[in-house]
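Dear support,

Our group has been running a series of protein-ligand predictions, and this particular one with zinc ion is the one our PI (initials K.S.) wants archived with full inputs and outputs. We had some confusion internally about which version of the output was final, so please treat the block below as the authoritative record. The input we submitted was:
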Amino acid sequence: MGLSATPEKAFEIDPVLIIHHQKECRKGPLKIIGHYHSHPNGQAEPSIHDHAQNYDEALIWVIVSVTKKGVQETNAFATDDGQLAHMVIPVT
Ligand SMILES: [Zn+2]
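Confirmed final output from the archive:
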């Protein structure tokens, strides 16, 4: 569930929800490896807010650029040297 007061500009995941899912995953076999969100009418790149919200450097971020015409671009990012950096996900 998003908590942002301006969801069209930024997203925020409920910390209670994160802790709940982390506890559930400790039971196995599932594991949280990342999360995704969209940027309506924006770039598929991390915003300043996204960088500030990078609370777990082990997680992969997937960001989707969406317009009225549909999905424009999808990119994945992993933390490299403290910053979200573009990564290539091979699709087979
Ligand atoms: Zn974002």
